[in-house]
Amino acid sequence: MRFAINTVSLSLFRFTSLSARLWVFGQMGAARLSLARIPEIGFWKLCGSGTGEGFTPRPNTAVWAILATWPDPETARRLIGSASVFGRWRSHAAESWTILLEPTSSRGRWSGKNPFHPGGVANDGGPIVALTRATMRASTFLRFWRRVPDISQVIGEDPNVIFKIGIGEVPLLHQVTFSIWPDAVSMAQFARGDGPHGRAIRAVRAENWFAEELYARFRIIDDWGSWDGRRPLAARAAA
Questions:
Q1: Is residue 16 classed as helix, strand or coil in its secondary structure?
Q2: Residue 237 lies in a domain
Q3: 3-class SS at 73?
Q4: Of 142, 125, 39, 146, the residue nearest 84 (C-alpha)
Q5: Does a structural domain hold residue 72?
Q6: What percent of the chain has pLDDT over 90?
Q7: Residue 232: inside a domain, yes or no?
Q8: Could you give the 3-state DSSP secondary structure of residue 8?
Q9: Rounded distance, CA 234 to CA 218, Å?
Q10: Which of 144, 150, 205 lies closest to 175, judged by CA?
Q11: What is the extent of the structural domain holding 163?
């Protein structure tokens, strides 16, 4: 079955040795050429990550990501499995995990475009994936990053969050947050409540922190691989 909308993949890779970390750092230039040559790939980004819960300005040189869009899940599975760039990254990584997603809502811009195209299908009641991406204004990014440690601690302690990571294309100025929640209610309570995240969102609106922003929600299609030695969605699959 082919979907009339794009499929989104996020592939995370963990590089443990010094040689592997130096190799993937070099891939931030070399992999761009390889990704651009993959047939049927759409929008794509190479991203680093932050330390701790991932939502910090200090880079984590062990964890890197490839985000991409595809015409349908079958094409995504086939090319992520067969394209040489993904194979090289897997061969150098100590572990990797890929999740396939279907957009259910998306608004805003990422590098001047909205790369996610919802097909009008609502979430089926399963877990909700939230992705936010922002380009900080140079005049306000220090205020943003001062709030991040409190947000990172709260999301790390939240018993409802199934998975979370912070990634980005450029340290400090570009930030992507990716999180998986059991339902819309728990996600909304974290995002809009009176905690550090809710207060930061209100400050974003009041003080115009971002030069560009995008907010998207997805349903999960598939996943494979492992992260921290396990499948992050194993509890969901067993339920």
A1: coil
A2: no
A3: helix
A4: 39
A5: yes
A6: 50
A7: no
A8: strand
A9: 18
A10: 144
A11: 7-226
> In whole angstroms, what is the distance from residue 79 CA to residue 81 CA?
5
Query: For 230, which DSSP code?
Result: B
- Say which amino acid occupies 15: F
Check residue 126 and report its DSSP letter: S
Read off the tokens for 174. Answer: 């570009």
Residue 159, in any domain of the structure? yes
Count of structural domains, the chain: 1
* 177 in Cβ contact with 47 (< 8 Å): no
What global pTM score does this model have? 0.84
Q: What is the mean pLDDT of residues 136-160?
A: 58
Domain with residue 45: its CATH number is: 3.30.70.100
181-226 residue pLDDT tens: 888 888 777 666 555 455 555 555 555 667 788 999 999 999 999 9
**126 — pLDDT class (breaks 50, 70, 90):** confident
Q: Quick check: 55 pLDDT over 70? A: no
Q: Give, in order, the Cα–Cα distances in Å from 22 to each of 15, 107, 130, 180.
A: 9, 36, 31, 30
Query: CA 92, 116, 95 angle in degrees (round to 5)?
Result: 15
| CB contact at 8 A, 114 and 108 | yes
